[in-house]
Automatic annotation (TrEMBL):
Pathway: Amino-acid biosynthesis; ergothioneine biosynthesis. Its EC number is 3.5.1.118. NCBIfam families: ergothioneine biosynthesis protein EgtC. This is Gamma-glutamyl-hercynylcysteine sulfoxide hydrolase. PANTHER family: GAMMA-GLUTAMYL-HERCYNYLCYSTEINE SULFOXIDE HYDROLASE, GLUTAMINE AMIDOTRANSFERASE DUG3-RELATED. Catalyzes the hydrolysis of the gamma-glutamyl amide bond of hercynyl-gamma-L-glutamyl-L-cysteine sulfoxide to produce hercynylcysteine sulfoxide, a step in the biosynthesis pathway of ergothioneine. The gene is egtC2. It comes from Streptomyces lavendulae subsp. lavendulae.
């Protein structure tokens, strides 16, 4: 269910990581190597990136397969950024939300993606969703499980939680309400990355001397410095450091 990737470091073209590698995100849309659920990620895609001096990221999203958008290779070739997040989507259930359902979701300085699904959606998380205000529910980006996950994370960010705490607490609540859900979450503010491994693959490539870090559902090449994140783990990363923290299962 979906593939995603986030990068922090020296400015590079989006295509350097998303298109050019042998096992890039574009290739993962039809031939992922480590995806545990689903086989084709053709229900939309998106990329969000930060421009120097502007804390609010730009986004480009579509409701089609990434390989079917003739404009994306040109955009990826010329846009350069030192921080970006991109995803290809495999929908949990059929819907008509179009590109609104494609990650990355965004608000203010934050970009977010969810790789996974909420089990027995939407009935299983009705009580969890009741913690959101009527305004927050009306502002849901789409009528999808990922959009609700984002709303819960965003609620915590706006209350002052840091990136890692916002993800960890959202995962704890959702896993308790809907056991068996897959909750690989990816979040950045352009300066740091937080991610969770919960039910699907997550890897990172850290290169502190070069001042860069990549966090992704799976490696885009065979560089031996890729490291797999254990399941039930929170990852917090900057270009200088990566920290892994075990996440505890919540008993329903």
């Amino acid at each position: 269910m979906c593939r995603h990737i986030a990068y922090l470091g020296s400015p590079v073209s989006l295509g350097r990581l998303l298109v050019e590698p042998e096992h890039s995100l574009v290739r993962q849309s039809w031939a992922p190597r480590r995806q545990r659920y689903g086989t084709v990620n053709a229900d939309g895609f998106g990329v969000g990136w930060y421009a120097e001096g502007d804390p609010v990221p730009a986004r480009y999203r579509r409701d089609r397969p990434i390989w079917g958008d003739p404009g994306f290779p040109d955009l990826a070739r010329v846009v350069r950024s030192g921080a970006f997040l991109a995803a290809v989507r495999d929908a949990t259930v059929a819907g008509a939300d179009g590109e609104a359902a494609a990650a990355p979701f965004a608000s203010g300085p934050w970009l977010f993606s969810h790789n996974g699904s909420l089990r027995d959606w939407p009935d299983s998380v009705a009580e969890t969703a009741s913690a959101l205000s009527a305004r927050e529910l009306l502002d849901l980006a789409a009528r999808t499980d990922s959009a609700l996950v984002w709303a819960l994370v965003l609620h915590r960010l706006r209350q002052g939680d840091d990136l890692g705490t916002a993800l960890a607490e959202a995962v704890r609540e959702l896993a308790g309400a809907a056991p068996g859900s897959r909750l690989n979450l990816l979040l950045t503010d352009g300066a740091a990355i937080a991610a969770t491994a919960w039910g699907d693959s997550l890897w990172y490539l850290s290169d502190p001397p070069a001042g860069r870090v990549v966090v992704a559902s799976e490696p885009y090449d065979d560089d031996p410095r890729w490291y797999e994140v254990p399941d039930r783990t929170l990852l917090s990363a900057t270009p200088a450091r990566v920290t892994l923290t075990p996440l505890k299962e919540t008993t329903p």
